[in-house]
Amino acid sequence: MKNEDVSLDVSLEEIDRVIHEPARLNIMLYLFVVEKADFVYLVHKTGLTKGNLSVHLQKLEQSGYVEILKEFVGRIPHTLIRLTKQGRKAFIQYRENILNLLNQT
User: Fold this and answer.
1) Whole-angstrom Cα distance, residue 20 to residue 95?
2) Cα dist. 28→8, 9, 57 in Å?
3) Residue 1 falls within a domain, yes or no?
4) How many CB atoms are located within 10 Å of the residue 101 CB?
5) Domain range for 48
6) Number of domain units in the chain
7) Is residue 52 part of a domain?
8) Residue 26 pLDDT exceeds 90
9) Looking at the DSSP assignment, which residues form a beta bridge with residue 67?
10) Which of 10, 18, 35, 60 could crosslink 65 through cysteines, CB 3.0-4.6 Å?
């Protein structure tokens, strides 16, 4: 069977490009398994710089996938990030689409 003969139930167009970007996928993976994470934790786990992490979090927040909570602990600013219900649902759909696409090939 040639590759062009394969009929795909899931197309590449159905893959969420916001999540699919490697840095954002990494962020979403960590947030999917924890209730919430602080900014410093994500810097260490993802290996991103603070600036890069901020930019990717803004994109995820604009998409409605994460919620960024800023608070003070004493006088020290503390930023918490968590997936929204929409973000959790989008990540589950992304995972299903990727698995289906891989299983089709």
Assistant:
1) 10
2) 26, 25, 10
3) no
4) 16
5) 15-104
6) 1
7) yes
8) yes
9) 82
10) 60
